Amino acid sequence: MAFLDDYKSALLSEIHLTAFIDERLDEIFDYYSLSNYEVIIEDKLFFRNLPTYLSISELEFSKSKNETFLNLLLSTAVRLNEPFSFGYFLDILERQNLEKTKIIEASTIFMNCRNAIELIDGYPTLLNLLEESFLTQSDGRKEPLTVLLNYYATAIIHFAEFNEGRLAEIRSLLVESYKNSTKTFLQDSILEDALGLSINFEDNPYSELQGLIDTYLERGVVLAPFVQGYLLETGTAYADVITANNYNMNEIWSLNRELYNNLLHTDSIFRSLGRGTAVLTTEDQLITYVSQLGKMHFAKLRDAFEGLPNDLEKIHLFDWGSGQAPASKMFIDRFSSENIKSVTLIEPSQAALKRAALHVSKDTQVIRTINKDFDSLIDEDIVLAKTAGDLTVHIFSNVIDMDFFQLHSLIDLLRRNSSGLTYYVLVSPLISITKTQRLETFVEEISSNVNNELLLVDDKASGTWNRGWSKVIRVFKTEL
Questions:
Q1: Residue 228 CB: number of other CB atoms within 10 A?
Q2: How far, in Å, CA of 260 to CA of 352, rounded?
């Protein structure tokens, strides 16, 4: 693999490693975040030897890219159950006075354990830290749950072969927490699946659990076939109401809020949204998403659009990870349907995509629906015939910070197919330096070697902005 060869060469000096991180952080993200267990375990010896390279400790950690790199190494050490590497990288983080997230604190509890008693005694603190992370720092329950599963994996490694009794004791702790729903982040069927695995050493429970984690995080998972062609919701009561009216986004929210008030079992429906990260499949999920999470997204988008010129026209609008198209609808409300030449909606959820097309159906005659995840996109999906004076606007609302797609491939796709004047609008919650760095890397890579201008940078931590929400906004333009 050329990437790994270049990576290993870069480790030979701090100068080369700094340059490698600076130029190829998107590929580093993809390698450490998206490789499944079978791939990453092949390079375990290489990872185990990383502490022998002085270049890592010599990095200038005031640079956010280098701090992000260190956090990726820490999370991978947990995943590979490499306590020495974890301790080495944690020592760098602490000596440099870098942010120690709740996820890292929680991981420290079991990565530093020397025996079963310490593993068991540390369990309540682990749960509390993961719950705090879920409530204040994570964009969903997958990250804290994955750490909890790695805690269980650590117990399996240490006790499955020679002390199954201790392993059963630790398993019982997890079973009790799951059944009693002692923490909100635990309410996910992945725990039931993990705890249902055999803990008999001969059944290879550690590899089985890692495979389950890969499936949960959609690493290397083949998704259900996507639907080609134009998708539009028709023949439903909701479609009839939208078609009969000319609603703006706020009125669509009010309609969904009214429908939400008539739903039953709203708590379980809301949990199924995964803080807005899940691929939606049901009518109840669609309604709950807009009514319960809509206002937060609207506020970020409203602020982001202030970074754009007021006189935009002849616009080809792309909505990436569109969901039900609140970003497109708000953009059209703000800049007028008369200035929109086309809307392209890209979304893996068929249910959400059909509703997205419905929401913008009265705003432009040219609507394209692309039912794919980002890694499945090809050039033909985003190529448009443009005429003189046309411009493109790409909106990425709450997607670039998420590590479910190959950032490097997305950047390459956009750079290959960009022409003329193009505006980019990126909004996300402010969660961690690693998440924010994905946005920074995107901006930097898309802007390189072309005329560009950064139009808006706006970061607000939780508790310092509207209703205690957080935001990361980047708006910039390029021109070829």
A1: 10
A2: 16
**Residue 277: which residues within 8 A CB-CB, separation 6 or more?**
139, 140, 142, 402, 404
Q: How confident is the model at residue 272 (pLDDT cuts 50, 70, 90)?
A: low
Dihedrals phi, psi of 421, to nearest 5 degrees: -85, 125
**415-448 pLDDT, tens per residue?**
999 999 999 999 999 988 999 999 999 999 999 9
3-state helix, strand, coil in the chain (%, to 5): 60, 10, 30
Residue of 110, 122, 130 lying closest to 182 (CA atoms)? 130
| Pairwise CA distance, residues 86 & 50, whole Å | 11
The H helix count followed by the E strand count for the chain is 23, 7
81 with 157: CB under 8 angstroms?
yes
Structure tokens at 224: 């259900």
Instruction: Decide: 290 and 326 in contact? Cβ < 8 Å.
Output: yes
Handedness of CA 392, 398, 402, 405 (dihedral sign): negative
Euclidean distance between CA atoms 234 and 225, whole angstroms: 21
Question: What backbone torsions phi and psi does residue 452 show, to the nearest 5 degrees?
Answer: -150, 160
